[in-house]
Amino acid sequence: MHNVVSRDEIAPSVVRMVVEAPAVASKRLPGQFVVVRPLEVSERIPLTIVDSEPASGTITLIVQVVGATTRELTSIQPGENILDVVGPLGRPTHIEKFGRVVSIGGGVGTAVAFPIAKGMKEAGNEVWGVIGGRSRDFVILEDEMRSLCDRLVVTTDDGSYGVKGFVTDALRRLIEETSGAIDLVLAVGPLPMMKAVSALTREHGIHTVVSLNPIMVDGTGMCGGCRVEVGGEIKFACVDGPEFDAHLVDFDNLAKRLRAYHDMEQQADHQCKIGLATRNKQ
Predict the structure, then answer these.
(1) What 3-state DSSP class applies to 221?
(2) Opening angle at CA 62, ends 158 and 173, nearest 5
(3) pLDDT for 63-76, tens place per residue?
(4) Which terminus of the chain is less hemmed in, N or C, by CB atoms within 10 Å?
């Protein structure tokens, strides 16, 4: 059992939770994740470790409510417990001094971009950040990113905050401004965003890494749901990744796989809403 220390909603349907998990907090590295089972009846889901405090034995998770299990998880209040938290899992981000690094987070992908940017900064890199959301309400971790980035660009699709446009528009301007003098781009977010970033950086020969967290299911490689073709080879995002060379990822095939369980996920979420409503009335 893992006690929830704090819980706050940082964007619509996006919740930050600080959870007691001493063994994970003492070992996790940027890019790694945990597998969480909120309740006895819940599915197991992988979540990136946003941050950790080894001294207090806590880890920070950011959860977007997209289905039944995330809804169950975010319904747990401070002082209550999460049943299982297993990790750290996955291959950590390869961190060294590259030079100028751009860390890009689209929407809730900023929760993954933040620990990577933090690790890169601690390694002595010049770190630029690009984060975005549909509108101002959906921009997360701006203060945290600004505190460690040498430069931060915030974008919103509707222009309600920061620069109007997508994160790819901001990246294009940075590439033009520097004449391509960027040593590494790391991108995390919706698949269409990562695909667009990959296409842009390929044109300029900029090494790019993407984190394929959106397609992971059980986090152990046993279910096979996160199969992805990388450089013509089959990989499993949860055990071989979650980070891969963006220019080798087959994004089109990946998008088809991501849509495969949509109807079942919608049905499960509907049943979860009914169950939680019933429990709250009791």
Answers:
(1) coil
(2) 40
(3) 999 888 889 999 99
(4) C
Condensed to tens digits (0 to 9), the pLDDT of residues 229-276 reads 788 888 877 777 788 989 998 888 887 766 555 554 455 444 555 555
- Helices first, then strands: H and E counts in the chain: 9, 16
pLDDT at 270: 47
Round to whole Å and give the CA distance between 236 and 64: 23
User: In 22-75, which ranges are E strands?
Assistant: 33-37, 45-53, 58-64
C-alpha separations of 62 from 74, 104, 133, 217 in Å: 10, 17, 15, 17
pLDDT band, residue 219 (cuts 50/70/90): low
**pLDDT score of 202 more than 50:** yes
Token pair 């060379």 in the structure block, residue: 245
Cα-based angle 55, 56, 58 (whole degrees, multiple of 5): 115
CA–CA separation, 215 vs 206, rounded Å?
Answer: 24
Q: Of 212, 208, 61, which is closest to residue 130 (Cα–Cα)?
A: 208
What's at 212, amino acid-wise? L
Burial class (CB in 10 A: 0-12, 13-18, 19+), 227: middle
* Distance from C-alpha of 220 to C-alpha of 160, rounded to nearest angstrom: 40
The full set of domains in the chain, from first to last, is: 2-89 (2.40.30.10), 100-258 (3.40.50.80)
Token pair for 18:
């600080």
